[in-house]
Amino acid sequence: QVQLVESGGGLVQPGGSLRLSCAASGGRFIWYTMAWYRQAPGKQRESVATITSSGSTNYADSVKGRFAISRDNAKNTVYLQMNSLKPEDTAVYYCNSRHVISNFDSWGQGTQVTVSS
């Protein structure tokens, strides 16, 4: 079972940038599709971005052109570069891994991102 640890959240002004990191351990990283989700207060958790082991990506419409997901398979780490941040991006961001064969999901503990002036 994969263990995931997120880092990089914080408070940023509208229009600013943050980069989230998620370090994975306990599994063979290339066997997992990695993703970032977020959950704002009073809302359901939603998918933000996904990246396969080969590097194919997919984004929510709300973040296309502003966010970029990437992974370093040698470092067992996935990143989320967030640019042009908006107040509506405020949420707890969670790292997710899904095994490509079993579809077993693992989740990180979450990191808070707050966009406010």
Give your account of this protein's structure.
This protein is mostly beta strands. It is 0% helix and 53% strand. The protein is built from no helices and eleven strands. It has strands at residues 3-7, 10-12, 18-25, 32-39, 46-51, 57-59, 67-72, 77-82, 91-99, 105-107, 111-115. Strands 2, 4, 5, 6, 9, 10 and 11 form a seven-stranded mixed sheet that branches. The protein has a four-stranded antiparallel sheet with strand order 1-3-8-7, with no helix packed on it. The chain is globular and about 40 Å long. The chain starts with a strand and ends with a strand. The mean pLDDT is 96.
Keyphrases for this structure?
single chain, 4-stranded antiparallel beta sheet, 11 strands, mainly beta, 117 residues, 7-stranded mixed beta sheet
Q: Count the helices. How many? A: 0
The coarse silhouette is: globular
SS class: mainly beta
* Overall number of strands: 11
Residue share in helix:
under 10%
Rg, nearest Å: 13 Å
> Can you summarize the main beta sheet?
7 strands, mixed
Strand content: over 45%
Summarize, please:
By secondary structure, the chain is an all-beta fold.
Record the SSE blueprint:
Layout: E1 3-7, E2 10-12, E3 18-25, E4 32-39, E5 46-51, E6 57-59, E7 67-72, E8 77-82, E9 91-99, E10 105-107, E11 111-115
Parallel strand pairs: 2-11
Antiparallel strand pairs: 1-3, 3-8, 4-5, 4-9, 5-6, 7-8, 9-10, 9-11
